[in-house]
Automatic annotation (TrEMBL):
One of its GO terms (biological process) is cell morphogenesis. It holds the Pfam family NTP_transferase. Residues 4-222 form the Nucleotidyl transferase domain. It comes from Tissierella pigra. The active site is at 365 (proton acceptor). Residues 254-461 are annotated as: N-acetyltransferase. This is Bifunctional protein GlmU. Acetyl-CoA binds at residues 388-389, 407, 425, 442. Binds 1 Mg(2+) ion per subunit. Its EC number is 2.7.7.23, 2.3.1.157. Its cofactor is Mg(2+). It catalyses: alpha-D-glucosamine 1-phosphate + acetyl-CoA = N-acetyl-alpha-D-glucosamine 1-phosphate + CoA + H(+); N-acetyl-alpha-D-glucosamine 1-phosphate + UTP + H(+) = UDP-N-acetyl-alpha-D-glucosamine + diphosphate. The lineage of its organism: Bacteria, Bacillati, Bacillota, Tissierellia, Tissierellales. One of its GO terms (molecular function) is glucosamine-1-phosphate N-acetyltransferase activity.
Length: 461
């Protein structure tokens, strides 16, 4: 059985945040989520997460995940250290299991690397395996000292390394595989007799080696995967690497991204092939984009479903759906729960909220459509306002198929315009418009000849 122990108890003081470090996000997902997903993707059957600072918040966030939480005590006199953190999960270490030690602040680790590490450990017959990396500048890291056979002889920390050992470029990532029974045994043997008064997981390696067990090392292919997040600067580094990975994945799947360095796509977004993404676009949350779409500059789409052959120009779409062959923008705003049909035009500075707009309807410019049910083949003129709020409650407006709403009209909800109803420009509609009727709801024009001269409003120049 494969079991992971994910250490996520650190406070992350350098983050200078009220939020637990592992809940800070990279491309829309908490950094701990990436580690959990990578572990599950590597066919690890049981994932144990050790939390400490902000543990209740972390547990609440991941309450739907099939993971086990263990809490590391916090307070004065607690010894701490990586070894102490692993001890908190000892009840979940099975004798016949392979245990992988991971860190909750390494969002760049991949399921491929975890899977390769576990397979290497098991197939090579090691009792412990260290994931290592080659760094051109290894200062600050523990060095890997190998035997002639290639197995690990020991791990030497920077402060304890000789000048010759400091030249070694292979470093300890802190990620390990252990045989479950031997890990439990070695944890019972380590002590905190050191300057920091902490229990270190590296001591487990030393104990197993001294007792004649084989300790191997697997060199990671991409050393950026072991990059940890302890500050906002390091968070930014992880964000950049993850953003590049996500953009490359979409491009490899047939999406054109004009300028990947200026395009933000979160990990959970899906995009169909032959869609073109222009610079400045932000795609977030559970957004799904169909095939053959064009998403032009400076558009933001959040938790929305965009069907195929849609053009979106410099617009914001939130928690909404857009049908095929529809054109949105420029500068349109679809607020939550907007359901836009096929071949619809939502144009310049049009705002839609909590509304259904059916096929072939057009709202070209400068309109507000809120809490409405609009039929198909409707024309909504410039400056039309769906007046949905009386200061206390929201009300709905219904506009039937093939209707025409003239420019600068107000539809005061609750109100209904029946099919083929026409509203004259400048009208304020407060009563039902019958099917096929023309409704004119504006004051009669009165021209008072000579009024300006009588009021002496024109001055001689």
């Amino acid at each position: 059985m494969n079991i992971s122990i994910i250490l996520a108890a650190g406070e992350g003081t350098r983050m200078k945040s009220k939020l637990p470090k592992v809940l800070h996000k990279v491309c829309g997902k908490p950094i701990l989520q990436y580690v959990i997903d990578a572990s599950k993707g590597a066919n690890v059957e049981k994932n144990v997460v050790v939390v400490g600072y902000g543990g209740d918040i972390t547990k609440e966030y991941f309450k739907e995940e099939p993971i086990i939480f263990k809490t590391q005590p916090i307070g004065e006199g607690i010894p701490y250290g990586t070894g102490y953190a692993v001890m908190q999960a000892i009840d979940h270490i099975d004798d016949n299991s392979t245990i992988t030690i991971l860190y909750g602040d390494t969002p760049l680790i991949t399921e491929s690397t975890i899977n390769k590490l576990i397979n290497y450990h098991n197939k090579s017959g090691f009792q412990a395996t260290v994931l290592t990396a080659i760094f051109e500048e290894p200062t600050g890291y523990g060095r890997i000292i190998r035997e002639d056979s290639g197995n690990i002889l020991k791990i030497v920390e920077q402060k304890d390394a000789s000048e010759e050992e400091k030249k070694i470029k292979e470093i300890n990532s802190g990620i390990y595989c252990f045989d479950g029974k031997l890990l439990k045994y070695a944890l019972s043997k380590i002590d905190n007799n050191n300057a920091q008064n902490e229990y270190y997981i590296t001591d487990v390696i030393g104990i197993l080696k001294e007792e004649g067990h084989r300790v191997g090392a697997y060199i990671i292919e991409d050393s950026t995967e072991i990059h940890g997040v302890n500050s906002r600067v390091q968070l930014s580094f992880s964000e950049k690497i993850m953003k590049d990975r996500i953009n490359e994945r979409h491009m490899e799947n047939g999406v054109t991204i004009i300028d990947p360095s200026n395009t933000y796509i979160e990990d959970t977004v899906k995009i169909g092939r032959d869609t073109i993404i222009y610079p400045g676009v932000s795609l977030e949350g559970s957004t799904e984009i169909g095939e053959d779409c064009i998403i032009r500059n400076n558009s933001r789409i959040v938790n929305s479903i965009i069907s195929s052959n849609v053009i979106i120009e410099s617009s914001t779409i939130e928690d909404s759906q857009v049908g095929e062959n529809t054109h949105i923008g420029p500068f349109a705003h679809l607020r939550p729960n907007s359901n836009i049909g096929e071949n619809v035009k939502i144009g310049n500075f049009v705002e839609v909220k909590n509304s259904v707009i059916k096929d072939n309807t057009k709202a070209g410019h400068l309109a507000y459509i809120g809490d409405a049910d609009v039929g198909h083949d409707v024309n909504i003129g410039c400056g039309v306002i769906f007046v949905n709020y009386n200061g206390k409650e929201k009300f709905r407006t219904t506009v039937g198929d093939n209707s025409f709403i003239g420019s600068n009209s107000n539809l005061v909800a609750p109100v209904k315009v029946e099919a083929r109803g026409y509203v004259a420009a400048g009208s304020t509609i407060v009563e039902e418009v019958p099917e096929g009727a023309l409704s004119i709801a504006r004051a009669a024009q009165v021209n008072k000849i000579g009024w300006v001269e009588k009021k002496d409003l024109i001055k001689d120049k």
